Structures are given as structure tokens and as C-alpha cells.
Amino acid sequence: ISLGVVHSHALSSSSPSSESLKKTFIDKCEAFIQNNKSSSANNCQKIWSAFQQAFVGRDPCNVPMEAYDPLIHTVIQDPVCNRMLFWSKTKKIVHDFTEKRDCFLTLEDTLVGFIMNGLTWCGKEESNETFTTGCPGWTDCVNNTVRSFWNRASAAFADAACGDVTAMLNGSIATPFSPTSIFATIEVKRFKAAKVKSLSVVLVTKENKGTTCDDPSLQDLQKEIEPKLKYNCKAVPDAYRTPDRQDLSRKLSDRL
Ligand code: AVW
Q: Are 204 and 236 in contact (CB under 8 A)?
């Protein structure tokens, strides 16, 4: 550790790592608000404070998703009907796609999703420190700090869903609608029939290979959704592996 780092934190009771997570959090929060005027009613200090209380001083394997309720209730986020994009096992392709256009909104395009995307964090029992290394991994324990956050944030995102919602699923794997995914265990279960009209599945496939919309896991999804909501599924070739790179964008944009 350099003397400069020690010095700059000499007046603070938290460790350099606590400071760096807080700084990253506040910086990303403020950058998001700058770029998204509709979220300007949010206060990043207040949001940080609600966030850190979820896990600071707790066993990092014993943070239930409800621990993030105060965070979720602190954030002011307008729902965007007809433009919400859910995904499962397609993180890269979804974000390569949404990066270039504003018409679809993923969890990672909302304030909390944007802030925490790519970060790792946890606390420790009987400590007021925040750690960004040495935290339990996704499957090390069920109620880990990071996984519970994504479960809770996904639940809030799905609760807010309205109109026609889209889900981008992976047609290159055996089970595109994976029963253990967040999409299956949390999001689909929280769509409210009174607000959500339909679910459109975009199954991203590699040229005529892999699974189709007839896949048994997608039939399970259809059964779970209908008759409450309308269901439809379209197979779309992976825009980055086929010569027709516009295809995915066009098919998706057709829905609007
Ligand atoms: P996912 P979901 N180890 O692609 O439906 C480490 O399965 O669950 O899609 N990290 C993991 C693991 C693991 N075993 N499993 C999942 N993750 C992390 C929020 C990893 O970062 C959005 F709204 C992976 O990229 C979507 O609609 C991410 O969890 C939906 O939930 C997603 O796993 C995507 O969740």
C-alpha cells in the first residue's frame, strides 16, 4: 500500500477498499443520472447508504435478497412499457445489441443494474468494512451478497414490467429456458397479468443449428405464461455469426 493511499484515508474510519467501492458506486450513480435525466430525482448518497446497509457487518453467505429491499425502495425508476428486454445466457449478445440503440431497456440499463454490473462486493460479520475481493462466488452459497442483489434487482425489474415484454434466450444451449435461471425462477413468476400483455421470446440461434421454438423448455415457458399473457417465439440467427448482421436488429425493431 502506498503512503499516499494511507494518507488520503487517514481521516476516514473505513478501509481503502470500502472507500473505493463507495467511490465507484457514487461515480457510476452520478454518471448515470447525468445521462438519464428521467432519474434526476435520485440522490446517490442516499442510495449508497441504503445499499451498504444490506451487507455491511453481515456474513457474506447470509444476505437474503430481502436485505436489498431498502435499496430498491430508495431508487426512483420510471417503468418503460413495451421496451423491457429480459435475457438468459445471452448477456453479451443482448448488450452488444442494446448498446447501439435506446429502444430496449435491460436491467443493466437501469440505475442499480448499471452501477453494480461487473462489480463484486461483500462485508464481514462484526466489521464495518466493505470488501471487493475474497467474496463468495455465485454458487459458493445461495444467499451470497452479490447473487442476492441480482435476484432482488431482477425481481424489481420484473415487477415493473408492463405492456409487451421481450426475452432474448440462447438457442445454442440444450435448455434455453433454464429452470434454475433468474429469468425462470424470479422474473417470469413476477409478471403481472394486469400490466403485462405479452411475452415475445427471441431465440438467438446459430444458422439453423441448435434449439428451435419447439424446444421442450420453451413449451414449459409457454405453459407457464398462457393463458394469462400472450406468448410468441421467433428464432433469429445470431447477428454476429451470420452474414446478415442486420437481421437480429431488424427482427427486434419490427416489434416496435
Ligand atoms: P444467466 P439469468 N456463476 O445468463 O436468467 C457465476 O444464467 O439467471 O441468466 N455467475 C453466474 C452464474 C454462475 N453459476 N449464474 C449466473 N451468473 C451471473 C437479470 C452471471 O453474471 C436480467 F434481467 C450471468 O451473466 C435477465 O433477464 C448472470 O448471472 C436475467 O436476470 C445471468 O445469468 C438474467 O439472469
A: yes
